[in-house]
């Protein structure tokens, strides 16, 4: 009980403000995100890190009236900007500190050049143009599971092997608010499952094979006598 109280009292004030409690108060909630100093309030230009309560919250649906609004467009634009700045393949709104059900994915051809061919093939990777889903739902279309190492920009510097379904179908609204569906397989299906988990406050570490959890730069830590930094900025 004492621990619970301490935990609750130690939450930063913005924890309360990044979650949308009631759809009807959307405008008021949204404005406070932007009207206070931008330097330390969401929507961030960096990835929130594990421990931040926003990553454990169940994100709220974007209210229907606001799906095609300048407010949501600004959040989506910020998500895409952060996604591309960090050169990664997926992002969910809680990762920029906004507890709303929005995800963005993009498997840019440039990433392929950085990967060995064998990785591309065994992980069944394929290019994916920028895809945004608002209030998405996920259905499994192929129940075969594949286990691969996976990382998360919100658990920076680590990876672990996770089993994911081989095929899924996403349905929801695109960034223009139009109902849309998308079937994904292989690595892109993995990205979708990973990002959908973020909307329910789940991280890959919750269902990884814990024996495979590792610091991605552990070898460099040895060769550089520990002089390695994991940057949280770009
Ligand atoms: Zn993630």
Automatic annotation (TrEMBL):
Gene Ontology molecular functions: metal ion binding; peptide deformylase activity
GO CC annotations on file: mitochondrion
InterPro entries referenced in this protein's UniProt entry, alphabetically: Peptide_deformylase, Peptide_deformylase_sf
Superkingdom: Eukaryota
Keywords assigned: Hydrolase, Metal-binding, Protein biosynthesis
UniProt xrefs under SUPFAM superfamilies: Peptide deformylase
Function: Removes the formyl group from the N-terminal Met of newly synthesized proteins.
Official protein name in the record: Peptide deformylase
Source organism: Drosophila albomicans (Fruit fly)
């Amino acid at each position: 009980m004492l621990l619970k109280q301490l935990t609750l009292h130690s939450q930063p004030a913005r924890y309360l403000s990044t979650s949308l409690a009631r759809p009807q108060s959307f405008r008021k909630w949204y404005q406070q995100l932007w009207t206070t100093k931008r330097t330390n309030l969401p929507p961030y230009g960096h990835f929130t890190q594990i421990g931040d309560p926003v990553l454990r919250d169940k994100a709220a649906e974007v209210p229907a009236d606001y799906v095609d609004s300048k407010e949501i467009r600004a959040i989506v634009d910020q998500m895409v900007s952060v996604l591309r700045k960090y050169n990664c393949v997926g992002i969910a709104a809680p990762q920029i500190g906004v507890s709303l059900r929005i995800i963005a994915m993009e498997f840019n051809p440039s990433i392929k050049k950085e990967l060995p061919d064998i990785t591309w093939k065994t992980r069944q990777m394929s290019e994916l143009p920028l895809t945004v889903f608002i209030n998405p739902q996920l259905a499994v279309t192929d129940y075969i599971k594949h286990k691969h190492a996976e990382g998360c920009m919100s658990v920076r510097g680590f990876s672990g092997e996770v089993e994911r379904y081989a095929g899924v179908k996403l349905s929801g609204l695109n960034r223009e608010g139009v109902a849309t569906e998308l079937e994904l397989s292989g690595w892109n299906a993995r990205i979708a499952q990973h990002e959908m988990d973020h909307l329910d406050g789940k991280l890959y570490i919750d269902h990884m094979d814990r024996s495979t959890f590792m610091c991605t730069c552990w070898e460099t830590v040895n060769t550089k006598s520990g002089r390695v930094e994991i940057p949280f900025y770009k």
